[in-house]
Amino acid sequence: MDKWAGDLTIGVGWVYYDGPVGHTEFHQHYAVQICFPSAGLLHIETTEESRSVETVLVIGSNVSHRLSTPATIAKILYVEPSLISQSARRLQVDGIEIPDLSPLQSQAIDNMFAAAQDSRGPDFGLELARVIWPAEASHAFLSIDNRIRKALKNIELSEDLNLNLDQIAMGSGLSASRFRHLFSAQVGMPIKSYLLWIKLQRALQSLAVDSSLTNAAHKAGFADSSHLSRTFKRTFGLAPADLNRNANITSRAR
């Protein structure tokens, strides 16, 4: 069974994979990772614990972890924690969690998985996450300052991601030093790291229509394909060539 030879769907703020899962190196990313094993146990290690599960498992934002799974099929959703809530809040998950889903939640998730791939809209990943964390689950979220929400939106809409701190801060009405501090506190990572995360999403969206890593790197604002590959492996624990060669990549971005 070829590892990472499944279907990879990219939306705005989320990435969804369905298929054979392989080994990864230790890595960490801004996205909250939700794993749904379909066949076999999913083995996950962090720097503090190791788990083997056959139920839904959640890995929090920026938690260093790796998959050591020799023969498992799984559905994996990566979603930005600031987009799961429909209001100005950010999901907070510490370490690894196994959510306590009700029968209605489990059925809703099964129904979403049963839908044909080409019928999934641009908000599929967010809708799936919102089944697990409904809007009324206020205890799971932290409020986000409106100025930081504005910055996140401006970054999403920007075609050029090689932005400097002064530009982004000015658009939010903050000084550069105040913006840097507030962004890290609210989003959970430095602005420079967040921009790299958005660049990776852009690169994946490019690979959905053009298999060239070089073209994807340039379109996303990386210096070259080597820079893209290093950043991708540090973030996801595997090389983009592994996905590009084996997976069926499609985009659901608007």
Question: In words, what does this structure look like?
Answer:
The protein folds into 2 domains: 7-141, Sandwich (Jelly Rolls); 143-237, Orthogonal Bundle (Arc Repressor Mutant, subunit A), CATH 1.10.10. 40% of the residues lie in helices and 22% in strands. It has 10 helices and 12 strands. The protein has a 7-stranded mixed β-sheet, sandwiched between helices. Strands 5-4-7 form a 3-stranded antiparallel β-sheet, with no helix packed on it. A hairpin with a 3-residue loop joins strand 1 and strand 2 (14-21). The longest helix has 17 residues, at 191-207.
Task: Throw out a few tags for this protein.
254 residues; alpha+beta; Jelly Rolls; Arc Repressor Mutant, subunit A; 2 domains; 7-stranded mixed beta sheet; 3-stranded antiparallel beta sheet; 12 strands; 40% helix; globular
